[in-house]
Design goal:
This protein is α/β, with parallel strands linked by helices. The chain has 3 domains: about 180 residues, 3-Layer(aba) Sandwich (Rossmann fold); about 190 residues, HUPs (Rossmann fold); about 100 residues, GMP Synthetase, Chain A, domain 3. It contains 14 helices and 18 strands. The structure holds xanthosine-5'-monophosphate. The site of xanthosine-5'-monophosphate (XMP) has 12 residues, from loops.
C-alpha cells in the first residue's frame, strides 16, 4: 500500500545512526519518502519512481572491503541525488574522485563556509554544521565544484549543478546543523522541483479508500490493546469499513486504573465500533498465581492472551482479514542489507497462527510513530489517547515485583494513578516520556500515629529519552515528588514508603522487571 501516486524521495540507507531521521525530516516537508537498503538493485529503485534520492551516512569507510555501494546507475538516472557524509564520499569515489582518511576524526559542531549553490540558496554563508566523520573527500570527481569548506575539511560539500548531484560532509538532518532544515528544503523544492504533495489529511483519505477497496465485503478483526498504534488502526479501519470491523479488547486486570473503561467508552461509546470487551482479570490472575519470575510472567500472559483472544474471535464467525498496528520502524530493512528485521507486534505476537483468515492488514506500516499520532488526531482520537505513553504488553505484571495478587494490583493502580495525576497537574505529562509507579516487594518499618507499620515501598520511575534505548531519569520538581509521595502514603493502604529512581539506562532498564 505504498504511495506511488505521490512524488517520492528514496533514502538509500547505508547504516548511519540518523537515517530514519532523514526520512522523517523529508516527510515533515510534505514529501513522501521511503528508506530502503543502500545497495538495493536499480530495478527496485526505478519501480518506486523517485523524484529525488538521498544517500545516507554509514559506519564504513568507502574503500573498506565489503563497504556497501549503491547501484552505479543511481547517478545517471537524471534524478537529483544528495549524498550525506558516507553518501557524499561514496558519490565522490563512484564518480571518479578520491577520499582519504582525515588526520583525526571530526565530531561536533563546526563552522562551515558555504559557497553559492542551489542547495544553499537563501542561507547565511557561514553556518554551524554537525560533523561526524573520519574520512573526507580529497579530490573532486569531474564536473563537480567545492560547495563548502571548513578549516580542517577543504571539501565539506560538492555540487554538480548540471547533473543535479550534491554531497555534504555534515549532517543537515540533525538540529545542531542550524540551517540544515533549509538545506533539505532547498534540495526537495529547488533542486528536485517537488511541491510537497503529501499531507496527513490526504493520506487518511487515500488509506480509507484503499482499505475499503481491499476489504470489499469482508470481515476484519483487530486486537485493540489501548495503545496508540492499535487505537489509530481501529479508528482508520472503522472509517473505512464501519461495522465490518470487530475489535477484541482483552482486559487482563493488569492495565492502569480506569483504562479498560476509557477504551470501552471511546471505541464502543463514541466511535460506535463493534467491540468485544473480554473481562479476563480472573483468568490472568489465576494463571499467574505463585509466579515471581518475570520471564515466566511474560510468557504466561502471552499464552493466556492468545487463548482468550482466540475464544472471543471464534464468536464472530468467519474472519477475512486480521489487522495489526505494525508501524514503519518495525518493518524498515536494515541499511546494511542484512535480512529484513521484522519484529512481531508486542501485544499480538502469535495471533496469526491461531486465527483462520485470508490476509493480514497493516494499514500503518508506512508511518513513523509521530505520523501515527498525527493520523490519530486527524481521525478524531482525543489528544490523551494519541499521546499515551508506552505501556508494556504484560502490563502491571512487570511492575509488581514478585508474586502478583489482586490486592497488590489494586494498590499499584491507585499509586500509579496518583503519580499520573500529579505529573499532569504540574503540566509535565508531555515533558516526561514515560513515568509510572512500581510496587516493590520490599517491606519496611514505618510509623502511623502511635503505631509501627510494616508495609510496602512504592518506587516512582520517570524518564526522558529519544529512543527508549538510552534514558535519563527525569528531574521532576521536588514539590511534584513531595505531593505524590504524600498522597500515596495517605491514600493507598499498605504503603508506608515512596522512593524515586535516579538511575539512567544503561545500566538500569526503564521497567524494573
Ligand atoms: P526497558 O525496561 O527494556 O523498556 O528499558 C524499554 C521500553 O519497552 C517497554 N517494555 C515492554 N513493552 N512488552 C512490551 O510491550 C514488554 O515485555 C516490555 N518490557 C519493557 C518499556 O515500558 C519501555 O517503554
Amino acid at each position: 500500500m505504498s504511495q506511488t501516486k505521490h512524488q517520492t524521495v528514496l533514502v538509500l540507507d547505508f547504516g548511519g545512526q540518523y537515517n530514519q531521521l532523514i526520512a522523517r525530516r523529508v516527510r515533515d516537508e510534505g514529501v513522501y519518502c521511503e528508506l530502503i537498503p543502500g545497495a538495493s538493485p536499480i530495478e527496485r529503485i526505478r519501480e518506486k519512481h523517485p523524484q529525488g534520492i538521498i544517500l545516507t551516512g554509514g559506519p564504513n569507510s568507502v574503500y573498506a572491503p565489503g563497504a556497501p555501494r549503491c547501484a552505479p546507475e543511481v547517478f545517471s538516472l537524471g534524478i537529483p541525488v544528495l549524498g550525506i557524509c558516507y553518501g557524499m564520499q561514496l558519490m565522490t569515489v563512484m564518480l571518479g574522485g578520491q577520499v582519504r582518511s582525515a588526520e583525526q576524526k571530526e565530531y561536533g559542531q563546526t563552522v562551515v563556509n558555504l559557497n553559492p549553490s542551489p542547495l544553499f540558496e537563501g542561507l547565511d554563508s557561514q553556518a554551524q554544521c554537525w560533523m561526524s566523520h573520519t574520512d573526507q573527500a580529497s579530490r573532486l570527481p569531474d564536473g563537480f565544484e567545492v560547495a563548502a569548506s571548513t578549516s580542517t575539511c577543504p571539501i565539506a560539500a560538492i555540487a554538480d549543478t548540471k547533473r543535479r548531484l550534491y554531497g555534504v560532509q555534515f549532517h543537515p538532518e540533525v538540529q545542531h546543523t542550524v540551517q540544515g532544515e533549509a538545506m533539505l528544503r532547498n534540495f526537495l523544492y529547488e533542486v528536485c522541483g517537488l511541491t510537497g504533495d503529501w499531507s496527513m489529511p490526504g493520506y487518511a483519505e487515500e488509506m480509507t479508500a484503499s482499505l475499503r477497496a481491499k476489504v470489499g465485503a469482508g470481515r476484519v478483526l483487530l486486537a485493540l490493546s489501548g495503545g496508540v498504534d492499535s487505537a489509530v488502526c481501529a479508528a482508520l479501519l472503522h472509517r473505512a469499513v464501519g461495522k465490518q470491523l470487530t475489535c477484541v479488547f482483552v482486559d487482563t486486570g493488569l492495565m492502569r486504573k480506569d483504562e479498560p473503561e476509557q477504551v470501552d467508552a471511546l471505541f464502543r461509546g463514541q466511535f460506535d465500533i463493534d467491540l468485544i470487551h473480554v473481562n479476563a482479570a480472573e483468568t490472568f490472575l489465576t494463571a499467574l498465581r505463585g509466579v515471581s519470575d518475570p520471564e515466566r510472567k511474560r510468557k504466561i500472559i502471552g499464552e493466556q492472551f492468545i487463548r482468550v483472544f482466540e475464544r472471543a474471535a471464534k464468536t464472530i464467525g468467519k474472519v477475512d482479514f486480521l489487522a495489526q498496528g505494525t508501524i514503519y520502524p518495525d518493518v524498515i530493512e536494515s541499511g546494511l542489507g542484512a535480512a529484513a528485521t521484522i519484529k512481531s507486534h508486542h501485544n499480538v505476537g502469535g495471533l496469526p497462527s491461531v486465527i483462520d483468515f485470508q490476509e493480514i492488514l497493516e494499514p500503518l506500516r508506512d508511518l513513523f510513530k509521530d505520523e501515527v499520532r498525527r493520523l490519530g488526531l486527524e481521525l478524531g482520537l482525543p489528544e490523551d489517547m494519541v499521546w499515551r505513553q508506552p505501556f508494556p504488553g504484560p502490563g502491571l505484571a512487570v511492575r509488581i515485583l514478585g508474586e502478583i495478587t489482586a490486592e497488590k494490583a489494586a494498590l499499584l493502580k491507585e499509586a500509579d494513578a496518583i503519580f499520573r495525576q500529579e505529573v499532569a497537574r504540574a503540566g509535565l505529562s508531555r515533558d516526561v516520556n514515560q513515568y509510572f509507579a512500581v510496587l516493590t516487594n520490599l517491606r519496611s518499618v514505618g510509623v502511623m500515629g502511635d503505631e509501627r507499620t510494616y508495609d510496602y515501598t512504592v518506587a516512582l520511575r520517570a524518564v526522558n529519552t529519544v529512543d527508549f534505548m538510552t534514558v535519563d531519569w527525569s528531574r521532576l520538581p521536588y514539590d511534584v515528588l513531595a505531593r505524590t509521595s504524600n498522597r500515596i502514603v495517605n491514600e493507598v493502604p499498605s504503603v508506608n514508603r515512596v522512593v524515586y529512581d535516579v538511575t539512567t539506562k544503561p545500566p538500569a532498564t526503564i521497567e524494573f522487571e
